[in-house]
Design goal:
heterodimer, A: Beta-Lactamase, Helix Hairpins, Heat Shock Protein 90, 3 domains, six-stranded mixed sheet, five-stranded mixed sheet, about 20% strand, B: about 220 residues, alpha/beta, Rossmann fold, Arc Repressor Mutant, subunit A, 2 domains, five-stranded parallel sheet, 8 helices
Chain lengths: ~450, ~220
């Protein structure tokens, strides 16, 4: 079982009360030690003083009889105090509770000063004094038990106070902790009342500074979730809207084909209908790729050789390029290993080449070059001899559904989003620039040196 | 009826042009906003179909600009966006109709005809002048209840004159309304069509304003 309670309130209460009790006990011990020391000094002083008085008094009395004591019991404390007065080795006076032997340890000679010794099974504190005249020896003793009881009384007082104060203190601490934790409970209540779609920041105008980091973290999280949901929502809306155009085209062309009497024109409309279907299918495929990419931001990493992958992708695209009289070249002799997901990297290469072929005119050249120098990272360069892009158009690349004006190519504008997304997931950078070699667009996907 | 189609999507533009031509419209097709604005300001179209997602100049901007320039022709906005605030914005900026893709060609044609009719103050679909009735949707003309066979050009010419009843249309105006880009116009084409119309529908229907053009008298056109 865990000794520290799970509730913050219980934990605070335990800690506070524990600390108070420990401090109190420590203080009591210190007080007791201090009190005993002071008590000893004080009472020892009294013993010494009493002894001195007796010495002075006995020096003047001429009474040699053994006065068995008659010092009256003046105080309830008196029985615990005893004295002996010796004249020249004879006991001349003693209190009634004092023994007849000198109050000193057996076998010990007389010496002045304080000592602690046992007499008749009782522990005594004895002060011995000596008067030069008539060889007066005076012993004044006090039972140690009395000192102990004084000390006990002091300690009892302390303990009693603690016993009384602790419950009161516990109550006060409980109230204080409860009051102090109020903002936390308010926050909890606010969170509990939230609708799942409510993502506006939490507002706690008088939030304590300790809660502020938590509030900031929560609000940051809400903001990120809101942005994510917003981007998903926009994506869905954009995707649905983008599909409407090819659908409208398919519908219009099909209606034209239905109503057209002229064979040539009907065939044209039917071909356009099919083209529209292809385009809608391609758009759907790309949307799915993008949706999967956005849902799963992490990429399983295994070493992938880009060289054979590039050749394979190029081989898939080559027939269509040949149909349009385009030259598709791959310059990837050396192997180029990068860490990543082979399927996604194939999608990236296909989109790069497909874009280049799609937006280049018939007869154009598209070249993929693989640079893999040890220590310099890996670069995939795809360039074409097409019309290229203006700086403004390059800046807008990657905006979803952005299509370059004036191209009849049936692009969806999603290819770049996909390329960027896959590159980002692989820690690679994407850059577009004019191609120095071919005059069109040059796109570089670069991996930093491992 | 000659209309301007502003659509940047090649497949959809091609399909709409072909489809609207089948339904009797003369269609000029532009692919970006700047061209759309230029054509709308310069040429006398009966109506325009405007896609909103145009490159270079957004369709709504085109609309706002030509409306500011005083162009009043009916504009049908064709768009993939169907949220209500967007419709409201489009209509507020001067669109006369708002159609969401995909659209049925017959519906598009009917909406265009309705827009043109209303723009000419004709609440009814059928147009009437004396005992001649013209049905734009069916592209049919009857004379005293008997169907009359007209060529496409003859029909368009009669339609233009009936829509503008009471006003004189010059030969150039008629040519511009009848022929889209790239169509050869013989110098006497209008005269020939007028001649045929008079032969088929009676000489008293269309009046010649010598040296100016042709007119269908207003009082004759009491539907």
């Amino acid at each position: 079982m865990n000794l520290v309670p799970r509730s913050l309130q219980g934990r605070l209460l335990t800690l506070v009360l524990g600390a108070v009790t420990l401090t109190w006990i420590a203080a009591a011990v210190m007080t007791a030690l201090d009190a005993r020391h002071e008590l000893d000094e004080l009472l020892d002083g009294h013993l010494a003083q009493a002894a001195a008085l007796l010495v002075v008094q006995q020096a003047r009395t001429d009474d040699d009889d053994d006065h068995a004591v008659d010092a009256p019991t003046l105080h309830r404390y008196a029985p615990q105090v005893a004295f002996q007065v010796w004249h020249e080795g004879r006991l001349s006076m003693r209190s009634s509770n004092a023994p007849r032997e000198p109050m000193r340890a057996a076998g010990e000679g007389f010496s002045t000063g304080l000592r602690t010794l046992a007499i008749d099974g009782e522990r005594w504190r004895v002060f011995a004094a000596h008067g030069a005249e008539r060889d007066v020896q005076v012993y004044v003793g006090e039972q140690l038990r009395s000192r102990a009881s004084i000390l006990l009384a002091v300690l009892r007082g302390l303990g009693l106070t603690l016993a009384l104060a602790l419950p009161l203190l516990a109550l006060a601490a409980w109230a204080a902790v409860r009051g102090g934790l109020q903002p936390l409970r308010r926050l909890g209540a606010q969170l509990a009342l939230r609708q799942p779609q409510a993502l506006q920041p939490l507002a706690m105008p008088q939030a304590p500074t300790e809660l502020q980091p938590l509030l900031d973290a929560l609000n940051g999280l809400f903001a990120r979730i809101a942005a994510l949901i917003e981007s998903e929502r926009r994506f869905t809306a954009d995707a649905a809207h983008e599909l409407r155009t090819p659908l409208a085209a398919i519908r219009a062309q099909a209606q034209v084909a239905l109503a057209e009497a002229d064979d040539e024109r009907r065939a044209h409309a039917l071909r356009a209908t099919l083209e529209g279907c292809d385009r809608a299918a391609r758009l759907v495929e790309q949307l799915l790729t993008l949706a999967r990419l956005e849902a799963d931001a992490t990429v399983a990493t295994a070493p992938v050789d880009l060289a054979p992958l590039a050749r394979r992708v190029a081989a898939e695209l080559a027939p269509r390029a040949l149909d349009r009289g385009q030259a598709l070249e791959v310059d990837a002799e050396a192997s180029a290993l990068v860490a990543g997901n082979e399927t996604l990297l194939a999608v990236l290469l296909r989109n790069l080449l497909d874009n280049a072929l799609r937006y280049s005119p018939d007869g154009a050249t598209v070249r993929l070059t693989l640079h893999a120098a040890p220590g310099a990272g890996t670069r995939v360069l795809v360039e074409d001899s097409g019309p290229g892009l203006t700086e403004a158009e390059r800046a807008r690349l990657g905006e979803r559904f952005f299509r370059v004006l004036g191209s009849d190519a049936s692009g969806s504008g999603l290819g770049w989003s996909i390329v960027r997304r896959i590159a980002a997931a692989h820690g690679a950078s994407v850059a577009a620039a004019p191609s120095a070699a071919l005059g069109g667009l040059a796109v570089t996907v670069g991996w930093p040196a491992a | 009826m000659r209309i301007l189609l502003a659509e940047d999507d090649p497949l959809l533009g091609d399909g709409l042009r072909a489809g609207l031509r089948q339904l009797g419209f003369q269609v000029d097709w532009v692919r970006d906003g700047e061209a759309a604005e230029r054509e709308l300001r310069a040429e006398p179209y009966a109506a325009a179909v405007l896609d909103l997602g145009l490159p270079r100049l957004d369709g709504l901007d085109v609309l706002a600009r030509v409306r500011r320039a005083g162009v009043t022709l009916p504009v049908l906005v064709l768009t993939a966006r169907d949220a209500v605030p967007e419709r409201i914005r489009g209509l507020d900026l001067g669109a006369d109709d708002y159609v969401v893709k995909p659209v049925d060609l017959h519906e598009l044609a009917a909406r265009l005809r309705a827009l043109v009719r209303r723009a000419h103050g004709q609440p009814q679909e059928r147009l009437q002048a004396q005992d001649v009735t013209l049905d734009p949707a069916a592209r049919g003309v009857t004379l005293a209840g008997t169907p009359v066979a007209l060529s496409a050009r003859e029909f368009d010419l009669l339609h233009a004159l009936m829509l503008a009843a009471g006003r004189v249309l010059t030969r150039e105006q008629l040519e511009q309304q009848l022929y889209s880009w790239g169509q050869e116009v013989e110098s006497n084409a209008i005269e020939v069509h007028i001649h045929h119309l008079r032969r088929k529908l009676g000489a008293g229907l269309i009046q010649t304003v010598r040296g100016v053009g042709y007119c269908l008298p207003r009082q004759a056109a009491t539907r």
